[in-house]
Specification:
- The chain has 321 residues and is of the alpha+beta class.
- Strands 1, 2, 3, 4, 5, 6, 7, 8, 9, 10, 11, 12 and 13 form a 13-stranded mixed β-sheet that branches. Strands 15-18-17 form a three-stranded mixed β-sheet, with no helix packed on it. It has a two-stranded antiparallel sheet with strand order 14-16.
- The protein is 35% helix and 31% strand.
- It is built from seven helices and 18 strands.
- The protein has three domains: 99 residues; 128 residues, Sandwich (Jelly Rolls), CATH 2.60.120; 72 residues, Phage tail protein beta-alpha-beta fold (3-Layer(bab) Sandwich), CATH 3.55.50.
- Helix 2 crosses helix 3.
- It is rod-shaped and about 135 Å long.
């Protein structure tokens, strides 16, 4: 083969011999490579110009180069497809491994507890925190606290004795405000059915935060409370002395407006009050009653500290006058 190529580039082959040579070149990739190598060498050294052969050899060479380019392109494309397929398989395998074997970030499951009308519930949470819930309160507790915080959701009233954990603050989330603590004892009044909101601190420290405007927050010290007045959080001195209520169900109130007591009864017993002007509901009163008693017995007990009359009508409506 090499001898024939040498004779071709020296111009010593006949047309028949040239046809035979190019048939051999086209039939073998090695022969094609050798021909191209010699052609490049001859071109550089200007030994490839043969009289009468330029047009014929150029045409044949162009045909060979086209065939070579096509096959080389096809070879490159096949390699690309092969590598692309390998990459695709790897990506699919990675997805399958991630989907099937790696741990998922699952949304926490919640347990919701509703306190019946006229009853209270005591519970111990998974971290040891104790909670006392008032009637008709609703609490949502995650199946597992996160690594960053211990949070529960409350609609109602609850007293919490929080287990200390400096790395994970305890947060009571209400409709509009969050109460954030590390370890303390405090009471929260936050029924969505009431316009009132209060947090009383007994021990430790708490921060009451507006969930919609976090820059609005108040930090309490023991014997302080925060309440909502005209849509604004206000801090004031207050002594929460209802430990007896938590243990025995006897609700004690000191220097509270009669209207606030009626508000408690509305929420706790699912009743409505039709209050006449003569009832003087803004008068401050003090006293106590057993929260487990029925509503009429409680009203009679309240008559001992405030002068009023009542009439129980249909659909749990009570007229106060």
């Amino acid at each position: 083969m090499k001898a024939q190529l040498d004779r071709y580039f020296l111009g010593e082959l006949s047309d028949t011999e040239k046809e035979s040579l190019f048939d051999q070149i086209e039939s073998s990739p090695d022969n094609k490579a050798e021909f191209i190598r010699m052609q490049n060498t001859v071109t550089v050294s200007q030994l490839g110009k043969q009289k009468g052969d330029d047009e014929w050899a150029g045409r044949k060479l162009a045909e060979l180069n086209t065939q070579i380019d096509r096959k080389q392109t096809r070879r490159v494309f096949l390699k690309f497809v092969k590598y692309a397929a390998v990459i695709a398989i790897l990506l699919v395998n990675i997805w399958l491994l991630t989907d099937k074997f790696l741990p998922e970030e699952k949304a926490p499951l919640y347990t919701q507890i509703k306190v019946p009308t006229g009853q209270r519930i005591y519970m111990t949470l998974q971290d040891g925190t104790e909670a006392w819930l008032s009637p008709r309160s609703i609490i949502r507790i995650p199946s597992e606290f996160s690594k960053d915080e211990r949070s529960v959701e409350l609609d109602g009233e609850g007293f919490f004795a929080v287990t200390k954990d400096a790395k994970r603050p305890f947060i009571v989330k209400t409709q509009n405000y969050n109460i954030k603590v590390l370890g303390t004892r405090f009471n929260v009044f936050a029924y969505t059915q009431s316009k009132r909101f209060e947090t009383n601190l007994v021990e430790g420290s708490v921060q009451v935060i507006n969930s919609r405007r976090p820059e609005e927050h108040i930090t309490l010290k023991p014997d302080e409370m925060v309440s909502l007045k005209n849509g604004v959080l206000v801090k004031s001195a207050s002594v929460f002395n209802n430990e007896e209520y938590l243990k025995s169900g006897i609700f004690y109130f000191s220097n509270k407006k009669f209207s606030e007591i009626l508000d408690y009864l509305t929420l706790w017993y699912k009743v409505t009050f039709d209050i006449k002007d003569s009832a003087q509901i803004d008068k401050y009163v003090s006293g106590k009653f057993r929260q487990s008693d029925d509503i009429e017995r409680i009203l009679k007990a309240l008559q001992g500290v405030h002068q009023f009359k009542y009439q129980i009508n249909k659909n749990n409506e009570i007229k106060i006058y």
